[in-house]
């Protein structure tokens, strides 16, 4: 048994290296359902290659995307049609945020790269009254529930990887191969600190090693 588990994990790593898929984009549709049909302005923090920012632009008058990686921002600009009301900025999310306030702020798989409470305070400050913050984040598995949910996600993850890669003959998009930093906070600590900074925030564990946070500013 002690040698079987590492072999299984190694086999899974090899499978997913050959069959990559975007766990974050999987939740884009859910994320958009948390938002109004129309709004004036949106900020997408950690915009990557701009997939979500372009979807937000179908509802917003103006969308600002910010990411610290100049290469991925250049890719986002290249992929975005000129007629879309989207501007991409290279910069630190906590120090270079384009002036707001914003009716919508989204943050996908980025919050664990930032000082957690400081980042939420920053988002709260830049959100317009009545605005909505939606976070898709990563948490470190700590509790038994975390590990059980992670185990339950494995067969679904394999199935999704197989389906999404059927017929693929080209390398995955750059947004799927960008280096990531592992999460250091567990879900319980995330929920505690988030509700302290954002009273009334709704948090939920999700499949594929993610959690969601939704907060409406009064």
Structural features, described:
The structure is a single chain. With 218 residues, the chain is an alpha/beta fold. It has a single domain, classed as Vaccinia Virus protein VP39 (Rossmann fold), CATH 3.40.50.150. It has helices at 4-18, 28-33, 51-56, 70-79, 116-126, 144-164, 174-177, 187-197; strands at residues 39-45, 60-67, 86-90, 102-108, 127-137, 202-206, 210-216. A seven-stranded mixed sheet has the order 3-2-1-4-5-7-6, with helices on both faces. Strand 1 (39-45), helix 3 (51-56) and strand 2 form a beta-alpha-beta unit. Helix 5 packs parallel to helix 8. The termini are far apart.
List keywords for this structure.
218 residues, alpha/beta, 7 strands, Rossmann fold
Count up the helices.
Answer: 8
How many beta-strand runs?
7
The dominant shape is globular
CATH-defined fold name: Rossmann fold
In CATH, what is the class? Alpha Beta
Average pLDDT reading: 83
Strands in their spatial order, largest beta sheet: 3-2-1-4-5-7-6
